[in-house]
Amino acid sequence: MSALFSIAELLAATGGRAENISADHISGVSIDSRALKARALFVAIRGERFDGHRFVGAAIKNGAVAALVSEENAPKLAGLPLIIVPDTLMGLVDIAKAARKRSRAKIVAITGSAGKTTTKEMVAGILERAGPTHASVKSYNNHWGVPLMVANLAEAAKFAVFEIGMNHPCEITPLAKLVRPDLALVTNVGVAHIGNFANIDEIAEAKAEIFSGLEPGGVAILNADHAQLAILVTAAKARRARVITYGFAADADMRIKNYHGDENGSSAQIVSGDEKIEIGLVAAGSHMMANAAGALAVATQLGVARATSLAALAAFAAPAGRGQTVRLGPEKNPLLLIDESYNANPSSMRAALAVFADIAPPVGGGQKIMVVGDMLELGQQSQKLHEALCADLRLAGADKIFLAGPYMRRLAGLLEGEIAIGAMAETGEEIKDAVMESLAYGDAVMVKGSKGVGLGKVVLAIRERFAAGQVS
């Protein structure tokens, strides 16, 4: 297994001291004692609800060659292989800084109110075909997730793709300065986390913090299809970035035209100067096509061959919980599941409902069923923003709707008489049995809501009952 850092390099980076370490290098950095590479360094992060120092012993037993621990906790762990530092999160940041300093990779950083993870996966899928690529896993995009991902950046990588998230002002700046991207992409600006901001312009300003870390000569790649574009352009140009836009807007540098989508995927033409690019995706939805256009813009700036990029996008399958489409059961009479259960905000909810509007049940006579859950972290605007979805819910063409969460439940009176209400409950756990009783092979069902509502349990129940088929 290849070395990521020598122990000497770790000590130099962190200023820590070693105790009882016999290994001379590590293969990776992890904060999860249950899932780490052999010969990894385990970092004992302390969070609000957990303290990694409790799992140092388990990490060593599971193959870690050392643990990064705090001075405060070191005496309790005597005898174990340790690197001791004043603060483990800062120690992790120091390792990340060392990884970034030595890297010669072209670095891409991605943020936005919706579509961050999907766009990151699309970009990584393209770049992997062009050279050794390192990319953030899952949605590790916060104050410890980004340092963890950067710390694992191998010196040999040609490209790296990092996702950066936020839910308060001033959170992106230190992460952007750690990543120091050559290209920074903002997928969109919406009202996600509006409960922590005065207005959407403040959200745009927080997203624009990503440009604070741009390398000299850096490129800002921006979705042109939202009202806050000017805020992002101004911030990018203040950093002397070159700006490339994409989207459905008529003046976008990479303009999406002739979009078509249904249950079998989507297609469009992307116009870039005199070039007309035909693109096809397995994933449906105009938002997915916008994500693909952003990924294509990144690849273009990095010199990836057009054919390579289009082939990667054609093969892209949406991740579980983020628009993944699965046909379950018999090939000629399947149940069609659209899994959007990982998260939700007003823009991503509308995008998902627009996809469902274009989808027909897989067989004649099948029902269209929606399971929708609350959108969280919307603060004082929560009720208004939920009520504003009623028109989109009606246009989605569902035969029956299930409502999970206190805000969605309040929509029942506004929708009654137009869409059959299957059931209402507070959580996914409480509503899943009612959903299961209403589903049959031949139906199409979409599950969408914020992760905290627990609609992932509904998805799991559907998968278990109807027997997983092929991911579309």
UniProtKB/TrEMBL annotation:
Tell me a Gene Ontology molecular-function term this record carries.
ATP binding
Q: Which residues form the Mur ligase C-terminal domain?
A: 331-450
**What InterPro entries would the database entry show?**
Mur-like_cat_sf (IPR036565), Mur_ligase_C (IPR004101), Mur_ligase_C_dom_sf (IPR036615), Mur_ligase_cen (IPR013221), Mur_ligase_N (IPR000713), MurCDEF_CellWall_CoF430Synth (IPR051046), MurE/MurF_N (IPR035911), UDP-N-AcMur_synth (IPR005863)
Ranges for domain Mur ligase central come to: 110-299
One of its GO biological process terms is: cell division
List residues of the Mur ligase N-terminal catalytic domain.
Answer: 25-74
Alphabetic keyword roster:
ATP-binding, Cell cycle, Cell division, Cell shape, Cell wall biogenesis/degradation, Cytoplasm, Ligase, Nucleotide-binding, Peptidoglycan synthesis
UniProt xrefs under PANTHER family: UDP-N-ACETYLMURAMOYL-TRIPEPTIDE--D-ALANYL-D-ALANINE LIGASE
Protein name per UniProt = UDP-MurNAc-pentapeptide synthetase
Q: State the species of origin.
A: hydrothermal vent metagenome
